[in-house]
Design goal:
alpha+beta; Immunoglobulin-like; five-stranded antiparallel sheet; four-stranded antiparallel sheet
């Protein structure tokens, strides 16, 4: 009976430790993206987030590839990072919102850290753009190269339909059918969607932290009970 109790207490310690370690990792497993609007032809703000390094190494650069169907991107300034646009040749002549034509487009946005982002610390990067008017029903992928002080990670794998999520999935958004307000700049609906996306993301972080804290508490209780049981056994 004493051996059984000791085994149960040991199991509690193990479970608590696993909860404490795995919950925070699950919350920051990928480079992810949220969209303020996903309707075809709409103006949207994509918010990319990262909360971990490459095998623990601090992040120094995030290079975000822009799908060819998107011709113009406006990156939001982040005070912790330098940001630059990388041009790419356009397959067709690009006409911007001011009626000016160009043979190039924005092919990549690069954020370079002024101070490397340490493992376990989260930051976000916002890109404003107009989604293609003819992309309803499509999924747009934004592959990201995460460069760290030691090593790098390519977030560029596309999941096949019905298959398990790959190890390094590219951030994606599913484009929906156009709406009457699709061509408006930052309409109320888009702002509400963005707020909801942010709230959902923050809620996920809170849940993960709560699970992690719960795991630590369970582990600590298990250790205390195990030590108490061993002392009683030794005393007898």
């Amino acid at each position: 009976m004493k051996l059984k109790n000791t085994a149960l207490l040991s199991s509690a310690v193990v479970v608590g430790t696993l909860l404490a370690v795995s919950a925070p990792l699950a919350a920051s497993a990928h480079v992810s993206v949220n969209a303020s609007s996903a309707a075809a032809g709409s103006y949207t703000v994509l918010t990319f987030s990262v909360g971990h390094g490459c095998e623990g190494s601090p992040t120094t650069t995030l290079s975000i590839d822009i799908p060819e169907a998107i011709t113009s991107v406006t990156p939001t300034v982040n005070p912790n990072w330098d940001v630059s646009k990388v041009s790419a040749d356009a397959s067709d002549t690009v006409v911007d919102g001011h009626g000016e034509s160009s043979a190039s487009r924005t092919g990549q946005i690069v954020y370079t850290a002024k101070t490397p982002l340490l493992e376990g610390f989260r930051d976000t990067f916002e890109l404003s753009m107009q989604l293609p008017a003819d992309a309803a029903g499509e999924t747009l992928a934004f592959p990201v190269l995460q460069t760290c002080e030691v090593g790098e990670t390519q977030w560029n794998e596309i999941a096949s339909e019905g298959a398990a999520e790959p190890d390094h999935p590219a951030p994606t958004i599913a484009v929906t059918a156009a709406t009457e307000s699709a061509h408006g700049h930052g309409d109320a609906g888009a702002n509400l969607t963005a707020a909801h996306a942010s709230e959902t993301s923050d809620t996920g972080d809170v849940v993960a932290r709560s699970l992690g804290l719960g795991g630590l508490v369970v582990g600590a209780i298990g250790i205390a009970l195990a030590v108490t049981a061993r002392r009683k056994t030794a005393a007898k």
